[in-house]
Amino acid sequence: MFRQAPQTQPRLAQDVYDQILSAIVNGQIAPGDRLIQEKIAEQINISRTPVREALLRLEQEGILEQSGRKGFSIRKITGEEVRALYGAREAIEGYAAYMIADKKNAAQLAVIEAAVDAERQLTNRDLDAEFRINREIHRTIVEQSSNPVLLDMFDSLWGRGISLWLFAATRKDQTPPRPDLHAELLNILKTGTPQKAQAAMIDHIRDGLDSHLKGLD
Q1: C-alpha dihedral, 140 to 13 to 85 to 155, nearest 10°
Q2: This prediction's pTM
Q3: Among 74, 93, 108, where does a domain finish?
Q4: Residue 98: is it exposed, middle or buried by C-beta count within 10 angstroms (0-12/13-18/19+)?
Q5: What is the pLDDT of residue 53?
């Protein structure tokens, strides 16, 4: 399941984290499977320390929970937790959209438009690429609001592995993302009132919430 990590790699814990998260997202590790740090370390051919760091990080991010002695398993996330995460997104990204539409700064809107155009030109439509371009569009909107506190909050929320895990849930037996949705949102940022832009962003986020809840079911 895991590939051998090069001994010279300076960030082993990050590499192990990425490998485990990818295996969870892709279904190679299923709910109920136990992750034992000694076994993973032996398979990757590294010491147990970076493996434990990676497992503890995934536990802190809400993806894993401790299961037995020195073991971990996938934690069952509840609908209430998903709603809480999306509620935080509504507050952060909704207000950012309000500020963008209020200023209607041409330079800021051009940066957002470039991010939206990048999604249209995306040729690799695998899960990781879709997640990254979606996050980049939303992050660009928050960044262009020129509010560093909002951006810190966004990065804290989207920087956790659980965001990718939840995004993966939306791809189960559902249609792929529609690039035109972000184009429509951009048009509202350009032409709509601040209140309309905020409402459009919140509606957009709530559509994602519905997809996530269906995916978790």
Answers
A1: -20
A2: 0.81
A3: 74
A4: buried
A5: 93
